[in-house]
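Look over what follows to help learners.
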Amino acid sequence: MSDLRWFHSTLFGLFLTFTVSCGIDQSILASIGGKRVEIGPFQTYVGEVTGETWQAVGARVTSRLLDQYLDRLVVLEAARKGDVNLPAAVTDVGPSEVQRLLDELCGPASEPSETEISTEVGRRVEEKRPARAHVRQLLVDSNEHGLEALERLSAGEDFVEVSRQLSRAPNASDGGELGYFDHGSLPPEIDEVIFSLSPGEYSEPVQGPSVYHVFQVLEVVPEGPPDLAEVETVVRTEIAQKLVREHIQGCIGHLASEIGVEIYDKHLWFPYTGRYSEEQ
């Protein structure tokens, strides 16, 4: 009789363990504020963002994407719980709408400190800015075609017209404009050629991985101190963006801890290493 009771007790224990372990559907990857988040839509999201099948995306990238995916859901759930006005359809909630919700839930990010801006500007203006070259190019199939283009340019033909006729560059019809490059920012073999040219000069054909380049330097800005106004604009923008990123991360972290986020790691097809693994 005692053996029978033991058997019934053991059977009940196994049944209870099975019920608990199978209480959450394997198609659920997380819970946010008590609401279950399904794996299928997230896999679709991974494919849309990366342009690859979700199975082909590595664990590190997938972890970051899961963080982004959950961040958005955390904001939406916090907005619902906080009676914040939401669009009628969740599909209408784009980045600008998420930012509006964050501003309502946590307020705007703080403005950059003038002291911090002044300090960083002072540090950067002490650094010399490298020489810069304003460059345009022709892309041709062979050294022979490059020499043909160079001969026509040296004879006085218009660069844009030669570009339209001979170049394979995506912007050949506009003259192959490349913009400004800092000395030392290009592959050494190309950097050396470009910064050996004077304004208006053309390079000999330079072999690349699959094509040949013919460069023309339009302007050379010598090495020297950076423009103060330009530096201040860049510094102000960089610091403002940094404050916004930190504010968003802090806001979402606070909202997540308030409404509760749980990741079901065993249901994932990859080893999750994202932020929410620390908040369980």
Observations:
- The radius of gyration is 30 Å.
- Residues 35 and 258 are 14 Å apart (CA to CA).
